[in-house]
Amino acid sequence: MMGVLHFIVKNLHQVLFLTWEHIFMVTVSLIIAMAIGVPLGVLITKRITLAKRVINSANIIMTVPSIALFGLMMPILALIGQGLGKVPAIIALVLYSQLPIIRNTYVAINNVPPSLRDAGRGMGMNRWELLKEVEIPIAVPVIIAGLRTAAVMNIGIAAIAAYIGAGGLGVYIQQGIDRVYPEMIISGAVLVSLLAIVIDGLMAGAEHLLTPKGIQLQKRLA
């Protein structure tokens, strides 16, 4: 363990740079995935057949190993000069993020109590106002939980993206294996794990802050 700590301290500048690269990839992919997944999850709430197809498609993407997905994208993106690096990594992370985001959004909107919808309609709200003022605020905690799952999962997948030149903390794991350098491998694994724990904690805090006070009180009384 002391060897790992010594390695991290000795290479602190590079550690910070690779950590920043890792966070950059995960953050950009999560923003794009949220912009796609949340509206799509809302869209399919009233279309059961479409919902099954969309969620099944997202499930199928999740079954594809990340290395295989990178391999499939490389020749396609090579046509525009982006076969290696952060672009295919971010696209892969966006694809892997869709299942937890779409599924959580879909489930959260569908689980809004009918009585609250009826109350909104009774106040004269149209479909958009009902979504904006009633359904989304109540669904936010579950949607954030989906984003939280996607973020933590993507931190691990982003480590594998080092094999296609995307950078990030996975560089230490890749180079450590190539050099048979245990301290480097363990340092990379530990740093990826710590980053996942920190991000999970921050997302949990965001989930708590964005949960309506009425729902928080309901949970305490339950």
Structural summary, described in words:
- With 222 residues, this protein is an all-alpha fold.
- It has one domain: MetI-like fold (Orthogonal Bundle), CATH 1.10.3720.
- The protein is 83% helix and 0% strand.
- The chain is built from 10 helices and no strands.
- The longest helix is centred in the middle third of the chain and has 34 residues, at 127-160.
- It is elongated, with a radius of gyration of 21 Å.
- The model has no long low-confidence stretch (mean pLDDT 88).
Nearest-angstrom radius of gyration? 21 Å
Q: Name the CATH superfamily assignment.
A: MetI-like
Q: Total number of helical segments?
A: 10
Major pleated sheet: none
State the helical fraction: over 70%
* CATH topology grouping: MetI-like fold
Q: What oligomeric state do the depicted chains represent?
A: single chain
Cα distance, first to last residue?
44 Å
Number of strands: 0
Number of domains: 1
In the CATH hierarchy, what is the architecture at level 2?
A: Orthogonal Bundle
Global shape: elongated
Strand content: under 5%
